[in-house]
Amino acid sequence: MTPFRLSRRALLGAPLLALPLSLWTRAHAAEEGFSAFLESMRKEAIRRGLAASVVDKALSETRFLPHVIELDRHQPERVLTFDEYLEEVVTPERENAAQRHLDANWDLLYGIGRHYRVEPRLIVALWAIESNFGENMGGYPVPSAVATLAFGGRRSAYFRGELLAALKILGERDVPFAEMVGSWAGAMGQCQFMPSTFLRYAVDYDGRGRRDIWGDRADALASMANYLSRLGWRDGEGWGEEVQLPSGFDRGLAGLESRRSLAEWRRLGVQTLDLRPLHPPGRKASLVLPGGKTGPALLVYNNFRTILRWNNSTYFAAAVGFLVDSMARG
Question: Number of C-alpha atoms within 13 angstroms, CB side, residue 306?
Fold first, then answer.
């Protein structure tokens, strides 16, 4: 088959005659390289059993996106404090919206929660943070985004796998090519699944014949619950809670690698904010200080580690927990 070729206009988004010669040369080299790369991916996809007709159609519409490479190479260097992160992620507006979405979708969420044994408030919290309840799903064509990163990004091997996964999704007809959009890094739909995550955990909850995490709310929420369940969520145990530490407490005891029973933490002077007894006393917990010495202290359970498997950031996991708690209070 003839190697795939892209127009230089599509490659750079500007008329060729207006480009300096050096930029034109680089564009030409990138185009030729990307076409050869797509041809190699075509052969690999077909070797793995994907239908040639599906692969050919998808890759013929796949484009190199220079802007994605710029985003990958020049991500913001500013490091947020935990308080700054919470101010951006767990706002009063988002807490109120989460409560409204929980109430409006309660019947659906209750059924999903019962089926997968996952707390409905947790599903809503992740829905809120990942895509603002489906409002911010991204507008990048996923095959083009992951192909661009596989060709010229920092994690080529990883994104080659994501491109193959995206082609498989298209072959299984879960989503048309034009509707397969997501973030610049390839995260898709209301739950922001990478293509490989979609293949493993997305579900057709309402039986409509395809797994639609973009436009089908039931599929999106159930897919999140299925993922959480498979990651190890333990229904009824909660994620943890904020606590207060006694004066002079040894903060060297903090860290996910250290686990003690709640009874032991109580003997060390750790208390709940409202001075309730830590319960049940035999449950194992770790002390986490996401904001360092000046931030909140959290006693977290196994479910906190489950959230970390979704996104390996203590800031993220704590924000999810705080949003869950705000709905519980509501």
Answer: 25
